[in-house]
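Appendix B, record 7
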Amino acid sequence: MVIGVVKEIKNREFRVGLTPGAVSSFTRAGHRVLVERGAGLGAGFSDEEYVQAGAELTDGAAPVWAQAGMMVKVKEPIPSEYGYFRPGQILFTYLHLAADQPLTQALLDAQVKAVAYETIVGRDGSLPCLAPMSEIAGRMSIQEGAKYLEKTYGGRGVLLSGVPGVERGNVVILGGGTVGANACKMAVGLGANVTVLDVNLARLAYLDDIFPRQITTLFSTPDNIRRSIAQADLVVCAVLLPGRAAPKLIRREDMAVMKPGAVLVDVAVDQGGCAETTHPTTHDDPIFTVDGVVHYCVANIPGAVARTSTLALVNATLHYGLALAERGVEEACRADAGLLAGVNCYAGRCTCRGVAEALELPYTPPETLF
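Structure tokens (predicted):
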């Protein structure tokens, strides 16, 4: 199969779909890999490294899209790329379609075989291709939140760790999954007062065990959320419903109970966000303020640490990419039900139940199509 890798053109997205080492794995398996010149520079990988790994370089993205049977990306295509879609082409990337009707429709119209990293399921029920970016986004949510708490950016001017004689900052994390646990790890490491809310009591017990006497855990209810965010200096929204739109846990009227200059980091922005006031921002213009609350809603947080993110992502996706290239979507998914869960669009049909429900589209189980 011809594998394509292009430069990501989403704002300040420096990650790349394949590392030179991953390219070598594909070429050793007999596949041809086309890489757009400069695709890996943002993550610290030179064109020469790709050539040494067996890739062929192209000038511009168009030749890659035109020839590749499978495109391996990081972020979802943006409108300027929709015209490249071809019937039967495999698109292997993060998609987050539940919050993106135009992209979903473009994929359906072009009859692309769209396989989304974020809905692939591991044998243990985990989300193996989403996990590494969730780990990074969770850790960065505290790093970025701490920065925007500085008065320079309109924040409260609070140092999360405090100093002797001065109270620590209060961090509230909505969701105790991978993002939430990693945010918790960073916040605890900084010395903040940390509260984690979740509806999964077993998950709360787990977090309470690994952070004994360092955090407060609360069952997530509207009342507990409202009381917690009223005391918070930094709120991290970290709730994930795989393949579905994020639940709106923070209402517009809740802004009134939050402290002026508090910061809200909505990591769930890719899926529509957990706050009604959320809308996607970019690394160039990352924040906005609603009723005195600073919102950080960058939709590709891990893109800022592109080298770490690329290496972590490819570690997780390479196995699946090789299977798709070797067997095609149909045979690879017959052999791996977890990979089948990653098929979001196929032959003009929406094959992810969560996306279909969020966008009010007809749902077709993928196993009925091949």
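Remarks on this record: The mean pLDDT is 96. The CA atoms of residues 103 and 183 lie 30 Å apart.
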